[in-house]
Amino acid sequence: MQLNLIHTYLKLTTSLLLPVLIASVLIAQPIKNIDPKTYKPLVPDCIADPSIVQFKDTFYLYATTDIDKNLSQAGRPVVWKSTDFVNWTFNGILDIGVDWDKPYSFKNNKGEDKKGYFRYWAPGKVVAKDGKYFLFVTIVTPDDKMGTYVLKADVPEGPFKFINGNGIYFNEPEKISAKPLVGDIDGEPFVNDDGKTFIYWRRRQAAEVNPDFLSIKDTAITLPTKFKGYSEGPGLFKRNNIYYYFYTLSGYASYCYGYMMSKETPLGPFVNPTGDNIFIYSDTADNIWGPGHGNVFKVPNKDEYYFIYLEYGEGSTTRQIFANKINFNADGTIQTIVPDGKGVGKKKKKKKKKK
If 334 and its partner were Cys, which of 109, 149, 279, 307 is the partner (CB 3.0–4.6 Å)? Predict the structure, then answer.
């Protein structure tokens, strides 16, 4: 099945047919026949919404932990570490003072008794500033209120503490909860060359962040994109004086990514690139379904970029993450990524010990 349904759809139809497309993709999705030699998730675990940074000689991977409970409950957060981009480990649970396993009882707006959990979603790239490490992460409360919070630590693996308030609480009015930087999910930071920080979040929202990371400067703007409809998992990176804003389209097994470019500021104005505006989408030949909520990792001191993304796979919240190299055309546009699940190999060799 070589024809890519998503790509053809985005070129030929409008968003009015999206429900029909999603249904057809889900029905057409085959059961995977996994070859361990060519199917190489970056980490041998069910995680999603990844971001990777490098501090000194170590790569740090932050992600949502999946436990096959749909979106009603997430696993405990961890920080994965690697020195070669291939072998990843973690030491214990990331401590931010929240009990992720505890069910909380409450009444919804209809007066019905409900139970819910705190959830840790979509951590953005950790930002190093003034000797501290700042984590921008979505936290969902048991009653499904969402926001992107900022926490800080002395080291990249934490423990992290909220920069305002002593923690985040539920049904404890006597305690003061931390306030979110933005009241929505998928907040992703970007630090410009001049040191100014910007944040991008769901539904094409963007803003400059004040230096103390406690609030945004001015008001948020909505970035106009060529493709409409629901969008999440945005981000920004810069290469050769061009800013690239990337954003998801659709979701689940039909996840894909569009992008825009600007030579002016991190907030635009952006222009749609010539040619293909979708740089990654499902590849039916290699059984890569729904490459979604991802991030761009740049190898320090090299013109080398990788897109790290979740793969929807067999459905529900049993997602895994993969990486593919980003190649660019002479005019700076992104060449279409063909997700293949093969991995990208080691990013640096360990030093040999002297005899």
Answer: 279
Separation of alpha carbons 266 and 263, rounded Å: 9
Amino acid making up residue 190 = F
Interatomic CA distance for residues 336 and 315, integer angstroms = 24
At residue 17, φ and ψ (nearest 5 deg) are -95, 10
Q: Which helix (H) or strand (E) holds 226?
A: none
- Angstrom CA distances, 222 to 144, 192, 219, stand at 24, 19, 10
Q: Answer whether 46's CB lies under 8 Å from 320's CB.
A: yes
Identify any residues that bridge with 295 across adjacent strands, giving them in sequence order: 308
The owner of tokens 């209809």 is 110
Q: How far is CA 76 from CA 21, 135, 171, 196, 222, in A?
A: 34, 16, 21, 32, 32
The end-to-end CA distance of the chain, in Å, is: 54
Each residue's pLDDT tens digit, 324-342: 999 999 999 999 998 887 8
Tell me the sheet residues that pair with 85.
Answer: none
Q: Which two tokens stand for residue 281?
A: 């989408």
Can you give the pTM of this predicted structure? 0.88
Per DSSP, the residues of 10-75 read: HHH--GGGHHHHHHHHHHHPPPP---TTT---SSSS-EEEEEEEEETTEEEEEEEEP-SBTBT--P
d(CA 184, CA 186) in angstroms, rounded, equals 7
Cα–Cα distance list, 311 to 154, 168, 175, 323, 329 (Å): 32, 30, 39, 10, 26
What is the amino acid identity at position 321? I
Residue 272: DSSP 8-state: P
Long-range contact pairs involving 79-85 (C-beta distance under 8 Å, separation at least 24): 79/156, 79/157, 79/158, 80/43, 81/157, 82/58, 83/57, 83/58, 83/59, 83/348, 83/350, 84/346, 84/347, 84/348, 84/349, 84/350, 85/59, 85/344, 85/345, 85/346, 85/347, 85/348
- What number of H helices and E strands is found in the chain? 2, 21
Reported confidence tier of residue 161, pLDDT bands at 50, 70, 90: very high
What does the CA dihedral 202, 207, 213, 218 come to, rounded to 10 degrees? Answer: -130
